[in-house]
Amino acid sequence: MRPSTLRTLQRAAELTRQNHFTEALLVAEPVILNADDQEGAEIRRWLTEHVADFTREKETRS
Predict the structure, then answer these.
(1) Is 10 a domain residue?
(2) Could you tell me the superkingdom of the organism this chain comes from (predicted)?
């Protein structure tokens, strides 16, 4: 997966955690739709492995 794709997915996860679902979709959709078959498979794997990134509260560090 290209580094820019990974950054986009991570940003979408962050936006989702902040309850900005529409913005998350706007960020991620073009990357997902433009991925070739190989990168699409990598994106699906990443999403499956990182479901919690989209649902957990943002961690705070002390």
Answers:
(1) yes
(2) Bacteria
